[in-house]
Write a structure and sequence with these properties.
Strand content: under 5%
Radius of gyration: 24 Å
Helix content: over 70%
Distance between the termini: 38 Å
Number of helices: 3
Structural class: mainly alpha
Oligomer: single chain
Number of domains: 1
Length: 89
Amino acid sequence: MQKLRSIILAIAVILALESSVWSQGCAMCRSALESSPEGKVLASSFAHGILLLLFLPYIIFATISWVVYRAYRRKSKQRFGESPNPGQA
């Protein structure tokens, strides 16, 4: 458990340090879209696209993790449910 916590903390620190570099591209594209008259309509769609690209991988990862966790719990219940009681012969 401690090793998993350390890995998650390391990933969070790496992501926090580089967030300004990642967000710069989206801000530049959005400002380029908003500067043209026909781009103002596209700017709102572009913002929704950014949100979709941001949250979709997290939703997929959470779904897969939930399925794996559920399968693990089901397998562990079967394993402990099928083991005979040592007190009964």
